[in-house]
Amino acid sequence: MTRRDPIALGRMVLVALLLASPTGVVLAVLAAQQRVGLLWAALVWLGVVLILAMLVRSHLVRLAGLAGWIRSLALGGEPGPPPGRDDPTLGGIVAAVGGLRRMSAQRAAELTSVARWNEGLLDGLPDPLLLLDPARRVVRDNKAARLLFGRGLVGRDISLVLRHPAVLEAIDAVLAGAGAQECEFTQPVPVERVFLARVGRPEGQAPEGASAMLTLHDLTDLKRIERMRADFVANASHELRTPLAAVAGFIDTLRGPARDDEEARDRFLAIMAEQAQRMSRLIADLLSLSRIELNEHTAPSERVDLGRLLIGAAEALRPLAEARGMRVELSLDPGLAPMLGQPDELTQLFQNLIDNAIKYGRADSAITVSAAPAGPEDLPAAAAALKAGPVLRVAVRDQGDGIAREHLPRLTERFYRVDTAGSRRMGGTGLGLAIVKHIVNRHRGVMTIDSVVGQGSTFTVWLPAAGR
Ligand SMILES: Nc1ncnc2c1ncn2[C@@H]1O[C@H](COP(=O)(O)OP(=O)(O)OP(=O)(O)O)[C@@H](O)[C@H]1O
Ligand SMILES: [Mg+2]
């Protein structure tokens, strides 16, 4: 309260007059009974009014100070200690305001932590999420969205980072009041990815005027698996259809024109037997692949002496190698630790690798099969996950034409061959390395391929030894 505040001044005088009225009545009665002089009574009453006015004023000044302090608090200021803390009448108000202040600070802290938690939740989502205002500007993003589109999204029009017309149309439709929308689109950079975009309205009172919520679900892997499955069925049927067509053709010939040609009959029957063998090999490989895949999540637990197993695998293929004038040289470290595995699968693994080395190595050259413990420093980056314990390294090296670099990542795909006709001619199904990969996976190992065109290839299998 200030002197220039006429309303407060008037209120102060009015309150003083009201408070002084009982004294006035008493003095008036005493003056009327002539017990005191009129002037004396008037002076005394004026004195009382003055004292009361001063008391009321000082009270009102403190109240005004307290009001100013509370106002400054409400505006978010830090006004220092409250006025009238020691005043018994104002002390209650100060204490109550202090309580309110503490409660509101606690609420604010709670709200901040809830907001931070929500932010953490959004950032924890694997899918990119964006909130957009009615002008299609980003008002909030999450970590996955920042990873996909880069930082600095907030405040920008979504069409600057996402230019697909179908997605923008879906956003516009939702902003215009339509229900939730979905559409697929392909993001070509940095690597091609397929997304399912979902646009909807955020529920309730959305912050920062968000009127549309856009989430992107990555369908790339799903699409790839879908394509792989379709390719697999197409490839498998094609691989079966070729020998089947040959067999059917020879049956027709034997029934018709070659019916009485004994020499042709023997030749055709030999080809038919070979084609039938090829079909049964293919079916055996497919079954074997599906069996290993089924068991892939359970690690095998038999104790295997890898040295002995490799000697057996090499021995079984020795006649095949000798037929091409090749020799299989074994180099086994005497300190080879045992490992946990499935012996038949491991034999199949190394026989497939040695078989490839025989098929794709140069005639009359040597194939080296070496096995030794591997230290952590020997492990390539691809096998870094095995660092936690002892590792065995088995390498099958041939001296052949080698494999061009661009084929390496795809070699373990089913039916993938560098030279399809050549592999077929040699009776290959193109499933050997796919089987190898699944057996290695089941044994929690890693396979690396090194190849130099014109010199040869080395297929190395890194396997965890027992005793981890
Ligand atoms: N040691 C190698 N040297 C050169 N090329 C190889 C070697 N091993 C595999 N390849 C190439 O990888 C392809 C796939 O090998 P994979 O073992 O899966 O099939 P395949 O040998 O053709 O048939 P299968 O193993 O079923 O008899 C082969 O067709 C061949 O082109
Ligand atoms: Mg093979």
UniProtKB/TrEMBL annotation:
Pfam families: HATPase_c (PF02518), HisKA (PF00512). The chain crosses the membrane at residues 12-32, 38-56. It is an enzyme of class 2 (transferase). It comes from the Bacteria. Keywords: ATP-binding, Kinase, Membrane, Nucleotide-binding, Phosphoprotein, Transferase, Transmembrane, Transmembrane helix, Two-component regulatory system. GO terms for molecular function: ATP binding. InterPro entries: BphY/WalK/GraS-like, HATPase_C_sf, HATPase_dom, His_kinase_dom, HisK_dim/P_dom, HisK_dim/P_sf, PAS-like_dom_sf, Sig_transdc_His_kin-like_C. It catalyses: ATP + protein L-histidine = ADP + protein N-phospho-L-histidine. Residues 235-467 form the Histidine kinase domain. Its EC number is 2.7.13.3. PANTHER family: PHOSPHATE REGULON SENSOR PROTEIN PHOR. This is histidine kinase. It comes from Phaeospirillum tilakii.
